[in-house]
Amino acid sequence: MKMKQRLWSALIASVMCLGLTACGGAPADTGSGTADVGGSDDLIVVGFSQVGAESDWRTANTESMKSTFSEENGYKLIFDDAQQKQENQITAIRNFIQQDVDYIVLAPTGETGWDTVLQEAKNAGIPVIIVDRQVQVSDDSLYTAWVGSDFRAEGDKAVKWMEEQFADKDQLNIVHIQGTIGSSAQIGRTDALNEGVEKNANWNLVAQQSGEFTQAKGQEVMESVLKQNSDIDVVYCENDNEAFGAIDAIEAAGKTVGKDGITVISFDTTRAGLNDVLAGKISLDVECNPLHGPRVQEIIEKLEAGEEVEKTAYVDETQFDSETITQEMIDERAY
Ligand code: GZL
Ligand code: ZN
Q1: CA distance 210 to 179
Q2: By 3-state DSSP, what share of the chain in percent is helix, strand and coil, each rounded to 5?
Q3: Looking at the predicted structure, is the pLDDT value of residue 302 above 90?
Q4: In sequence order, what are the beta bridge partners of 174?
Q5: Strand partners for 106
Q6: Chain centroid offset of residue 134 CA
Q7: Which of 125, 173, 233, 300 is most buried (most C-beta within 10 Å)?
Q8: Pocket residues for ligand 1 (CB within 6 Å)?
Q9: Three-state SS for 268?
Q10: Top-confidence residue, 195 or 20
Q11: pLDDT at 32
């Protein structure tokens, strides 16, 4: 039910209550804070357009949203998996508008191409919350709030660690397996490495190709790079699933990863990724926190209460390396 309808129903209910109390009847309030007028369902309806199911990170992100926006929490979630295609997200948003949802949440595949459909949502009076990756729009009133990670900062953490680890290496041959081209996560993590290569004369980028944030593509890219390059020092993977694929390819080629072999760097710190850090297969994993459900819920609750919300909210993130990680550190994490 939309916010304005809710206000009307409360107003009508209070008038009714006045009437009822005047003639001694019980107030119509159902105790849910807003009186139920005509038995209308007072769940807050949220339409969520999710990128897809390409990675462990995405699965954890979906789980966080679904467990937060449950009926017992007072929500009806309409979930759409776009299989990593923007056109599917645009269709989903139009469906949400048709269904007159109370809020639209969008985890965008790429940063551009959103102006038209977000204008349609604005015209329909439906607030849009962007989560995870960012959108570049001509008018940022087309969305109410964004919450997610600082991807450039994540990349800078990895580059700083590499500078410390390989300070005395005269030549560092780096393979760069990028994420989905045009996504904020890829742009930020790539910009950081490109700047690191410019800054460090001993760093040599031997290959740069997208692994689409998937394990299969990560393995395929690594296999082709291994055929053309025999001296690789570092593989910079823009998420854990690409790292899993790259490690499989490296080991299938009879080489090793870790301290005495190729250094694998990754992002996301999923449970499987951290297990590989503990095993010494991934040397550094930079956190990218997927638990956005409660953060988006906080924004919606504020909007429901008519309160101001922050336009941009970055989540705090850390990093783990194979020298210092412990099982306890992994056990105490929520994903
Ligand atoms: C990052 C997110 C990225 C993850 C990948 O916030 O957009 O997309 O790093 C996921 O695992 O596919
Ligand atoms: Zn009700």
Answers
A1: 5
A2: 40, 20, 40
A3: yes
A4: 205, 234
A5: 49, 130
A6: 10
A7: 300
A8: 54-55, 57-58, 132-133, 149, 183, 185, 213, 239, 267-268, 288
A9: strand
A10: 195
A11: 43
Ligand 1 centroid to residue 212 C-alpha, Å: 10
The structure's pTM equals 0.88
Please give the distance, rounded to the nearest whole angstrom, from the Cα atom of residue 263 to the centre of ligand 2.
57
**Ligand 1 test: best mutation among 213, 286, 314, most atoms within 8 Å of CB?**
213
Measure the CA–CA gap between 205 and 198, rounded to whole angstroms: 10
**Cα 170–Cα 246–Cα 166 angle in degrees, nearest 5:** 20
Supply the pLDDT for residue 41. 73
Lowest model confidence (mean pLDDT) among 40-44, 63-67, 81-85, 199-203: 40-44
Predicted confidence band of residue 17 (pLDDT cuts 50, 70, 90): low
Count of Cβ atoms closer than 10 Å to residue 32 Cβ = 9
Alpha helices for the chain (secondary structure H)? 3-22, 56-68, 86-98, 115-123, 151-165, 184-199, 215-228, 240-252, 271-278, 293-304, 327-331
Q: What is the tens place of the pLDDT at every residue in 176-192?
A: 999 999 999 999 999 99
Residue 285: its H or E element: strand 284-287
Question: Tokens 């809020």 appear where?
Answer: 103
Q: pLDDT at residue 39 above 50? A: no
Distance 74 CA to ligand 2 centre (A): 10
